[in-house]
Design a protein that fits this description.
The chain is of the alpha/beta class. The protein is about 25% helix and about 20% strand. The protein contains 20 helices and 25 strands. It has a six-stranded mixed beta sheet. It has a five-stranded parallel beta sheet with strand order 1-2-3-5-8. A five-stranded mixed beta sheet has the order 17-25-24-19-20, with no helix packed on it. The longest helix has 17 residues, at about 135-150. The relative contact order is 0.13. The chain binds beta-D-glucopyranose.
C-alpha cells in the first residue's frame, strides 16, 4: 500500500462485535458471564482447511512409523523430514520478526553465505507498535509474508508478541508492547497479513516468556486472572480471530511444567478453550521429554544441532511406541495436524494455486518506510527547534556512533541479511539540500568488556558489560564539529548487540559514555537535538531535562534512516506514540518495585495485573514519559465526546464519537486513545485500561470526527474462582486522551 493511500485514509482502528454465538470455551454461561460471545474484528484469518480429511487418513494409512515421526521433528535446523514416495514435502521454516532470516547450514547455525537470500529488513516490534496503526500491522505481515513465500518458506517464526513486563528485557525491542489491548489489535492483522501468502505465522513465544534471564528453566508463576487479562489476550485473538496456523512453545516453565509439555496451556487453553487447529512447534531445543511432550500438546520438536534422529520426537518416540508407552494413534493425531497445515498452505493438494511471493521489491522497502515513518516519537520540542528549517542553515554537526550503526543483523533469530539499510547519517545525506555541510563525528564508541565468548546461537545468562569511558580524542573531534556547525544532532541510544535475545540488561543506564558526551555537547550548543535509537526504555531523565528537542526512533528497518531524516526536516509529521512506559528509574517499574524480577529457579509476577502504565497510574508514580505519549509538529484538541447510549447491557457495543481538531500549522495524525476506569469496583482494578484507539489524519485547521466501537465484553475482568469473564454492572468512566496521562475528554456510562 502506498504512502498517499495510507495518509489519506482515516484509519479507524476499532473493535467490533458482530455475533453472539457460542463458543469454544466450553464454560457455563451465567447472567454476567461473557464467555458466550465471540468478537470479530475487521481482520479475519482463514481457518485451517479441513477438506482433506479423507486424503490425510489414506496418507497416514500408508506411512511407516519412521515416516510419521519424521514429520514431528527437525530433520535440519529449520525443516522437518519429507516423505518423498508419498509426495509429502519438508515443512520449511525461517525466522523471524524483522524479516526473513538468511539461509543457514542444514546442521548448524552457520550462515551459508548465499547471494540470493537477502531480504527486506522491517522495523522491530516496538517500532511497529509505536505506529498505533493496525493497517500498518497488516501491511507489515503481508509484506514479510510475501518475502517468506518468495524464499519458499511454509512457516515464518513471527510475530513475537510476549508482553513487555520489564524494560530491561533482552527482547523488549522485538516484542510489541506492555498493553494487552494494543498487543492483540496489532497481532491479529499482522498474522492475517502473513497467512494470506500460503505462509503460516508461528506466533511466539507461547507463553509467559517475558525475560531472557534463566529462560531455559525458570518457572513462571502468574495468577490466573493476570494470565488471562495481561499475558494471554493477544495469543487468544491470534487463534480465535486471525486463525494462526502455528504457535511456538516457549523455553521456560509455567506453573512447574515446561511450556512445550504443559497440558494446561497447550491442550486445555490453546486447543480446548480457544479451538486452535494448527500445530505447536517447540522453540529451538525447548523440549525435554518424549511421551509427556506429545501427550501434553506439542506437535513438532525443533532444535539446535545434535543428530536429528536423537531428538525426543525422533527415535525415542519410535522406541516409546514400540514399548507401548504411547499409542500410534496418538502419533497419528499430531501427524494429521501437520498434514492439514500443508494442505492449508497449498504445499500439498492444490499446489497449482500456491502463491509465489516477492522479495526485496521497492514496494516492500516502501512498506518498511511507511511503518518507520509513523513509528518515530517526538518526546520533546520545547523551542520548536524541530522540524529543522533547512533554508536557514548551512552546516550540521552529526554526532554519535548511532548515526552510522546498522542494526539489521544480530539478535539471533531476529537478524536479517539485507542489501538496504539506510543509516541516520545516510538518511540526512539523502534528504538534506546538497549545499548543507554535514560534519560527522563518532563521539562515542560501542565497546564491551571482554566476556566469555558464547558460541553462535548459544544462550548465555551473563549481562553484557560495556566500557563507558569516552575516548578523549573522539570527544574533542565531536566538540569541534559542534563548534563549527550551526546545528547539532546527536544520535545516541543502543543497538542490537546490547539489546538482544538471550540476555537481559543489567540496568537502564545509557552505555558507552553517551550521557557524558551529550552533556558536553549541550554545554557548547544547548539547542542540540538528541535522537535516541533503541528498542527499550533507558534512564534519560537528565538528558530529557537538559535538551529542548528529544526524538525517539527504533531499530527501524531498511528505510529507517530516510524515515528519520524525513521526520527531522518536517517532510513527515511525527505521529508515533510510546508502546510502553518510560520510567524515570528502573525501580519505579512494577516488576522491579515489587522485587519480582528475575527470580531464580522461580519467578512470581507479584505486580499481578498492574503491568506497565497500569502500575504507574494506579500507584500514582510519575513516569518520565507515559504510555501512549508522543508529540506532533502540530497541535490537536479533542472535543464533543459522546457515547450513543447512557446504559448498556452485556451484548452491546459502546459507540463513541469524538472530534479531533488540528489547530496547528502542519497536517498530521493523532492517536485517539480510549481508557476505561471502573470506580468502586468490587475487584482490584487498574486506574485505567486501554480499550480502544484510532489513528486519524487531520489536515491543518480541520476537524475530523472519529468513531470507535467498544464491545461491552471488553470491560470484563476474569473471575478466577469461577474461571469466567464477568462484566461488573455499574458506572464506568470513559476517558479519552492522547496518552495514559493526558485525558482530555471524559464521560460516564452504566452497564446494567
Ligand atoms: C528463539 C526463537 C527463534 C528460534 C530459531 C530461539 O532461540 O527464541 O525466537 O525463532 O531460536 O532461531
Amino acid at each position: 500500500m502506498n504512502k498517499q493511500i495510507l495518509s489519506s485514509m482515516a484509519i479507524a482502528v476499532c473493535t467490533l462485535l458482530f455475533s453472539c454465538s457460542d463458543s469454544t470455551t466450553g464454560m457455563n454461561s451465567t447472567e454476567e458471564s461473557t464467555d458466550s460471545f465471540t468478537t470479530s474484528s475487521e481482520y479475519q484469518g482463514r481457518p485451517i482447511n479441513m477438506n482433506y480429511e479423507d486424503k490425510i487418513d489414506s496418507l497416514i494409512a500408508e506411512m511407516t512409523l519412521e515416516e510419521k515421526t519424521g514429520l514431528l521433528h527437525g530433520h535440519s535446523m529449520f525443516t522437518t523430514k519429507a516423505v518423498e514416495r508419498l509426495g509429502i514435502p519438508e515443512l520449511k521454516m525461517a525466522d523471524g520478526p524483522l524479516g526473513v532470516r538468511e539461509e543457514l547450514e542444514r546442521e548448524s547455525w552457520a550462515p551459508l553465505g548465499l547471494e540470493d537470500d537477502y531480504a527486506t529488513y522491517y522495523p522491530a516490534g516496538a517500532g511497529l507498535s509505536a505506529t498505533w496503526n493496525t493497517e500498518l500491522a497488516y501491511v507489515f505481515g503481508n509484506s514479510v509474508g510475501e518475502e517468506a513465500r518468495a524464499r519458499n518458506k511454509d512457516v515464518i517464526l513471527s510475530p513475537a508478541i510476549n508482553i513487555i513486563r520489564t524494560p530491561v528485557g533482552g527482547r523488549t525491542y522485538e516484542y510489541f508492547t506492555e498493553d494487552p489491548f494494543l498487543n492483540k489489535k496489532l497481532a491479529v492483522p499482522f498474522i492475517v497479513g502473513i497467512q494470506e501468502n500460503d505462509v503460516a505465522a508461528c506466533v511466539k513465544h507461547y507463553a509467559a516468556n517475558n525475560q531472557e534471564t534463566n529462560r531455559d528453566f525458570v518457572d513462571v508463576q502468574i495468577d490466573e486472572r493476570t494470565l488471562r487479562e495481561i499475558y494471554l489476550p493477544a495469543f487468544k485473538d491470534a487463534v480465535t480471530e486471525a486463525h494462526a496456523y502455528s504457535m511456538m512453545g516457549a523455553y521456560n516453565k509455567f506453573r512447574g511444567e515446561y511450556l512445550c509439555e504443559n497440558d494446561y496451556m497447550l491442550n486445555q487453553v490453546l486447543r480446548d478453550e480457544w479451538g486452535f487447529k494448527g500445530i505447536v512447534i517447540s522453540d529451538w531445543a525447548a523440549v525435554h521429554t518424549t511421551v509427556n511432550s506429545l501427550k501434553s500438546g506439542l506437535d513438532v520438536e525443533m532444535g539446535t544441532p545434535k543428530p536429528f534422529d536423537e531428538f525426543f520426537l525422533a527415535q525415542p518416540l519410535i522406541d516409546s511406541v514400540k514399548a507401548g508407552k504411547i499409542s500410534e494413534e496418538e502419533v497419528d493425531k499430531h501427524v494429521k495436524r501437520v498434514l492439514r497445515l500443508m494442505f492449508t498452505l497449498n504445499s500439498m493438494g492444490d499446489t497449482e494455486s500456491h502463491k509465489e511471493g516477492s522479495i526485496n521489491t521497492e514496494a516492500h522497502f516502501k512498506d518498511a518506510y511507511n511503518i518507520a515513518s509513523e513509528s518515530i516519537v517526538l518526546l520533546k520540542n520545547e523551542k520548536d527547534l524541530l522540524p529543522i528549517n533547512t533554508q536557514e542553515i548551512s552546516s550540521i554537526a552529526v554526532i554519535g556512533a548511532n548515526a552510522t550503526k546498522k542494526n539489521a543483523l544480530g539478535g539471533f533469530g531476529a537478524g536479517v541479511k539485507t542489501k538496504r539499510e539506510v543509516t541516520p547519517l545516510e538518511g540526512l545525506k539523502n534528504r538534506l539540500p546538497s549545499d548543507i555541510t554535514i560534519n560527522y563525528a563518532e563521539g562515542y564508541q560501542e565497546r564491551y568488556a571482554p566476556k566469555k565468548e558464547a558460541k553462535f546461537g548459544e544462550v548465555t545468562q551473563s549481562r553484557t558489560e560495556t566500557i563507558d569511558e569516552l575516548d578523549p580524542q573522539l570527544l574533542e573531534e565531536a566538540l569541534e564539529a559542534v563548534r563549527n556547525s550551526e546545528l547539532t544532532i546527536i544520535f545516541a541510544g543502543s543497538n542490537r548487540d546490547y539489546e538482544t535475545e538471550a540476555s537481559d540488561r543489567a540496568d537502564l543506564s545509557l552505555p558507552f559514555g553517551q550521557e557524558e558526551l551529550i552533556q558536553k555537547v549541550l554545554e557548547i550548543n544547548p539547542n542540540a537535538i538528541v535522537v535516541m535509537i533503541a528498542g527499550a526504555p533507558f534512564e534519560i531523565e537528565n538528558i530529557s531535562k537538559n535538551t529542548h528537542s528529544l526524538v525517539w526512533s527504533w531499530f527501524n528497518g531498511s528505510e529507517g534512516g530516510n524515515a528519520l531524516a524525513d521526520v527531522l526536516i518536517g517532510e513527515v509529521n511525527p505521529s508515533g506514540k510510546l508502546p510502553w512506559t518510560m520510567p524515570k528509574k528502573l525501580e519505579d517499574s512494577p516488576a522491579h518495585a515489587t522485587n519480582s524480577f528475575p527470580g531464580d529457579q522461580t519467578v512470581t509476577y507479584d505486580e499481578g495485573i498492574l503491568v506497565g502504565y497500569r502500575w504507574f497510574d494506579t500507584k500514582d508514580i510519575a513516569p518520565l514519559y507515559p504510555f501512549g505519549y508522543g508529540l506532533s509538529y502540530t497541535d490537536f484538541s479533542l472535543s464533543n465526546l459522546t457515547a450513543n447510549q447512557k446504559e448498556y447491557t452485556k451484548g452491546d457495543l459502546i459507540q463513541l464519537s469524538v472530534d479531533v481538531s488540528n489547530t496547528g500549522a502542519f497536517d498530521g495524525k493523532e492517536v485517539v486513545q480510549v481508557y476505561v476506569s471502573k470506580p468502586n469496583s468490587k475487584v482490584e482494578r487498574a486506574a485505567k485500561e486501554l480499550k480502544g484507539f484510532a489513528k486519524q489524519a487531520v489536515a491543518s485547521g480541520k476537524t475530523e470526527q472519529v468513531t470507535l466501537a467498544i464491545p461491552v465484553k471488553e470491560l470484563a475482568y476474569f473471575d478466577a474462582s469461577e474461571m469466567k469473564w464477568k462484566v461488573e454492572p455499574g458506572t464506568y468512566k470513559i476517558l479519552v486522551g492522547n496518552s495514559s496521562r493526558n485525558i482530555l475528554q471524559e464521560t460516564e456510562i452504566t452497564i446494567k
